[in-house]
Amino acid sequence: MTSGTFSIEANIVDILNRNIGFGKISVTNGKITEHFISDEIKEGWPYLLPGFIDAHIHIESSMLTPPAFARRAVMYGTVSTVSDPHEIANVCGIEGVKYMVDLGRKSGFKFYFGAPSCVPATPFETAGATLSVDDIRILFEAGDVSYLAEMMNYPAVLSRDPLVMDKIQLAHDFGMPVDGHAPGLKGMDAENYASAGITTDHECTTLEEALDKIAAGMKIIIREGSAAKNYDALHTLIDLYPDDVMFCSDDKHPDDLLQGHINQLVTRSLLQEYDLFNILKIACINPIEHYNLMTGQLRINDIADFILVKDLSSFEVLSTWIDGVQVYNGHEVLLPKVEIPVINSFGITNFTKDSLQLKLKAANANVMVAINGALVTEHETILMNEGIFENDIQRDILKIVVVNRYSTAPPAITLIKGFGLKKGAIASSVAHDSHNIVAVGTNDDDLATCINEIIKHKGGVTAASGNEKYILPLPIGGLMSGETAEVVGRTYETIDHFVKSVLGSTLTSPFMTLSFMALLVIPSLKLSDKGLFDGRTFQFTSLQ
């Protein structure tokens, strides 16, 4: 892929100066060398503007490698992502981060990876690796990363834990911004968290929370992913604080990526009649300025990263350019094909259903409650009968299991509501953030089948009911497939449809929700491979 000299005539969208007019840009060796805009718009001509940027995403959650993700994203006008590789880091450590960086560089797309700050996310779970302060220093010194990724251990930040503060200070020493992760923090807690030198948050679920964090000096990244959807709660920020807001996916499953990316938030915001230039500043400009990205803003001497769209209502992408190279022409993706090596860490070799037995007392039980479209869970206290637990499908009380994938150990088992399964079981090796095996099911036979399918393939998402079973293998870290977005997305859609239509799940995205049931840093009750955890008190609790 090379960039020569060329010119484009179109209606040019000058976001920085809030102006649109017919004009011409010229590009030489990947940079904009001429930029002219008239005072008039030519009807029927397409529009040229800077490309879209996802300001916070875990590429691994798409179940795609960076090159495969890029090939889909450019079709929607995305030219850059701010990406936290902490999923693969939890499995493979610093080598996992370098793996993502290397594939990103070969992809022809602009991936800006961060140094994961919390690997493992907590000391209350088993991960495949640890990233120390020294490891983060190595990544900074090598120029492999652009920022310190989300600081999830917010209790340690609030208490100014020395190890956590050392990582933050190291980022500041290298002139790197520090991303936040502070669900629910408001008032003085938000001020305390921000004053540690943390500058963003993508976990806001209420406008009150977002306003408190903006007042504390933080940038708010409005998240609309496959499981966590906060746009409806936060969209008024678009016109209230256009300088302090960005858009992100956080976690985007492959079937959703087949439908669109940041372009969806742009068109959605327009339909709600927000200011066009505010929307585009949020989608195209603010991430560049906050993270100091080497992505162009459509100015003289800028890197030639831009998109050509049919109009400013549908934003149908006709062409995408990165570094002055056309990477999508409206019909074909022109990015290079990249060879994909496999890395992984999988120690467990088999699993028996005998270990799934759960004995209860005649007493109240602390039951997890999954919430559709959210990463948080609720906590219900439910009276249970004494004896061996049989799944209570009528009350939607099922067994949830987390199995240590890295070494042989007894599984952690508790109870959960909210999945709505009427039969069968589902399981996944995508289980934030340590990525052990997490499973929910109506019976032990199907639970064991699903868990063993994942062990057999060294990663995947699977569903089973009796003799009928489906799996999407994820051999790369137990997180990603080596296939294209189209193959992965369609396979995922097939399994997802089976889980909803045959097994009866009532969740919009059952596998995405399942993958967050082991994420301890987001309340309320979660399950790690070591037991039931209360995210509000940040300590283990008991089922009964």
From TrEMBL:
It comes from the Bacteria. The keyword Hydrolase applies. GO terms for biological process: adenine catabolic process. It catalyses: adenine + H2O + H(+) = hypoxanthine + NH4(+). Its cofactor is Mn(2+). Residues 378-539 form the Adenine deaminase C-terminal domain. InterPro entries: Adenine_deam (IPR006679), Adenine_deam_C (IPR026912), Amidohydro-rel (IPR006680), Metal_Hydrolase (IPR032466). It holds the Pfam family Amidohydro_1. Keywords: Hydrolase, Manganese. One of its GO terms (molecular function) is adenine deaminase activity. Its EC number is 3.5.4.2. Residues 47-327 form the Amidohydrolase-related domain. The keyword Transmembrane helix does not apply. Belongs to the metallo-dependent hydrolases superfamily. Adenine deaminase family. This is Adenine deaminase. The lineage of its organism: Bacteria, Pseudomonadati, Bacteroidota, Saprospiria, Saprospirales. The gene is ade.
